[in-house]
Amino acid sequence: MARTTTALRRGLILPTAVAAVLVGALAVPPTAAAAATASSATVSNAGLTLYGAGFGHGRGMSQYGAKGAAKKGLSATKIVNFYYPGAAVTSKGNPALRVRLSAIDGGHFTFAPTSGTTVTGLVATAGNGKKVALPARSGWHVARTGNSYVIQQKVGTAWKTSYTLAAPVSFSGPSTLKVNYSRAKSDCRGGTSVTFNGSLQAVVSGGTAHYLARMPIDAYLRGVVASEMPSSWAAAALQAQTIAARTYATAKITPSRYYDVIDTQANQCWDGKLSETAATNAAITATAGKVLTVGGKVISAEFSSDSGGYTASGGVSYLPAKADPHTLAAGSSATNWTKVLTPAQLAALDGSAGLTKVTAVKVTKRTGVGRWSGRAETVQLTGVVAGGKKTTISVTGATFRTKLGLRSTYFGFTK
């Protein structure tokens, strides 16, 4: 944080009688707080009211915008053409994708039956080529030991090691796998397990255990689309979401890295079969293989929930900042929102050893387009610290948003 500090001035001490005369002669009504502007406001004891728009970073497709466009009768192709101008819809097939299971980074897991009472047909293949057909059991537990993995079966109430295989270890055989996590997933739909069609790989990277669900990209999308967009929305909106999600994941394929995407909002929410619906699966089938490209290269098709009526620039030609009438037509409660921030919340931005009271807030840099002259990039807070010194700090718009739990950086202090 940038910071400037100014000491409070001491007043001249006058004799009591003189002071009384001056007070009586010069007293004036207290000055009213300055009226708020789009980018600056004083903070009262009751707090500060923010008027905001949108939910998320605002780059690329607005999901509520896709809903609004579909209501107007636009096709999926026209929707993605609006949000990613200059990009062409191209067929790129159905490549394999490796999905990092975030809940068990550094942890362990258990294969559980997908039906019946046993896990059957599971084959483990070690990094050195050794292959083991695992006998049918009620479950198989997998955990890292050094640069290897132990595969354990339950004996009584304890897990006992049956095999030790060199990493990376791949598990395949059954068309559907169910994995019980050693700790719950906290993002997206959460949960303590995932069921999916594909195989699983246990790797060691940076001295840490990581686990990857591997499957064709369209199988992956079955666990993504309904996690990212309500399946009750119009088919055109679901298809646009599918094209964007497929494009985003395809662009993330990185052979030199041990995984391609993570199963959280850091990339896209993926929750396996838990997220599958007939409507979203139909959207995946209807758009099979379709991705967005510019100059033959798959783009990074970012998207967010609601643009607030104006998209944000992604710094490339296909992610421009522009007016978004489709989001305004969707009727989302996130398009316009209000939040009151207490003085304590604002002071907490500076940490426990910083500001004790915030008296004014000012957005000193914006993106320059849209309401309030755009999204906040830098925010300045003025107040006092312990001891009474006047202090000004600056934080990024992203920090201001994240620490205060705002829906976006697209906000102002007037409507």
Unreliable spans: 3-32
Number of domains: 3
Q: Compute the gyration radius: what is it?
A: 28 Å
**Oligomeric assembly:** single chain
Number of helices: 10
First-residue to last-residue Cα separation: 28 Å
Major sheet attributes? 7 strands, mixed
Tell me the helix content: 10-25%
Structural class computed from helices and strand pairing: alpha+beta
- Beta-sheet strand percentage? 25-35%
> Roughly what is the average pLDDT, rounded to an integer?
92
| Adjacency order of strands in the biggest sheet | 9-8-13-16-17-6-18
- The backbone outline, from C-alpha atoms, is globular
Describe this structure in words.
This protein has 415 residues and is of the alpha+beta class. It has three domains: 2-12 and 34-52 and 342-412, no CATH class; 61-94 and 220-259 and 278-330, no CATH class; 96-217, no CATH class. It contains ten helices and 26 strands. The chain has helices spanning 16-26, 63-71, 76-83, 217-222, 225-228, 235-252, 278-286, 325-330, 343-348, 397-404; strands at 2-6, 40-42, 48-52, 61-62, 88-91, 96-100, 109-112, 123-125, 131-133, 140-145, 148-155, 158-166, 169-172, 176-185, 191-197, 199-205, 208-216, 261-262, 290-294, 297-298, 303-304, 337-341, 355-366, 376-385, 390-396, 411-412. Strands 9-8-13-16-17-6-18 form a seven-stranded mixed beta sheet. A hairpin with a 2-residue loop joins strand 10 and strand 11. Helix 3 packs across helix 6. The longest helix has 18 residues, at 235-252. The chain is globular. The two termini are 28 Å apart.
Pick out its properties.
SpoIID/LytB domain protein; single chain; signal; SpoIID/LytB_N; globular; 415 residues; seven-stranded mixed beta sheet; 34% strand; SpoIID/LytB; Bact_Sporulation_Assoc
